Amino acid sequence: MIILRSCRVFGLLVSHYSHGLGSSGPQSSRLYASWTEEKKRPYWKTLRRLILGAPSPPYKKVVQTGDPVLRLQTQLVPQDRISHPDTQVILKRMVHILRSGDCMGISAPQLGVPLRIIALELREGMCKLPSELMAEREIHPFPLKIFINPTMRILDSRKLHFHENCTSLHGFSALVPRCHSVEISGLNEKGDPTSWKAHGWAARAAQHEMDHLDGVLYIDKMFPRTFVNLRWQEVND
Ligand SMILES: [Zn+2]
C-alpha cells in the first residue's frame, strides 16, 4: 500500500546508536532479549482469541514486512471465481482498508491473500499538499480503480525520484525511482476488461502495487541511504 502524506523535510539525518550490535555484557544481553522475546498478548486479546479463534485472511489489518505472504509470487484469480462471494469479500475488505486510512493503494497480499488484485483511489480530500508540491509530483485525484490479474505497460520510462512509503512498512519512507507513466490493464470487480493510463503520482502508486503482486517491496528499489523512520525526530525529543 502506498501512503500519501504531507511533505517532510529530510534534512539532517543523524543516527544515534548508543547500543552497538557488537557490544557484549549484561546490558546488551537484556537488549537482545527484548528484541527477540515474543510479546505477551493482553488478557482481553487472549479471551477474544479463545472465543473467536485466530483471524484468517483477508485480514482486517495490513500485514507487516516479515510476513512471508509479502514475498510470495501471487496467483491469478480464475475468471469464473471473480463473482464468487469469497472473492467479493476480499475486494470489499481492500476498498474498506483503502478508505479507512490515508493511503491510495492496496494489494491483496497485504491482507494475507496471495492473489493478483490491486485497488487504487486518490480522493480529493487527500490532496492537501502545497500547490507547488502537488504540481511537482503531478498529484491529481482519481476515482476507485480495481484491477484483477493486472498487467503493466510502461508508457514513459523517464524516472521520477520521490519519497514513498507503504503501510506494510509502517513508519518508514525512502526515495524510490519510478517511471513517469504506465498503463494498467486487467479485469474489474465484475470481471470486465478495464485499463487505465496513469501518470505522475498515480503511476508511482500503480507501480508500487504491481510490485506487491510479485513479492517486491519498495525497499528493494529504494536508494538505501534515504531510508528513514518518519518519527526519528520524535525519538530524540
Ligand atoms: Zn505497499
From TrEMBL:
GO MF annotation, one: metal ion binding
UniProt-recorded name of the protein: Peptide deformylase
Pfam family, one: Pep_deformylase
Enzyme kind, highest EC tier: hydrolase
Species name: Eleutherodactylus coqui (Puerto Rican coqui)
Catalytic activity, EC: 3.5.1.88
Function statement: Removes the formyl group from the N-terminal Met of newly synthesized proteins.
Family, similarity comment: Belongs to the polypeptide deformylase family.
Hydrolase in keyword set: yes
PANTHER family, alphabetized: PEPTIDE DEFORMYLASE, PEPTIDE DEFORMYLASE, MITOCHONDRIAL
Biological process annotations from GO: translation
Record field: catalytic activity: N-terminal N-formyl-L-methionyl-[peptide] + H2O = N-terminal L-methionyl-[peptide] + formate
Alphabetical keyword list: Hydrolase, Metal-binding, Protein biosynthesis
Keyword Signal: no
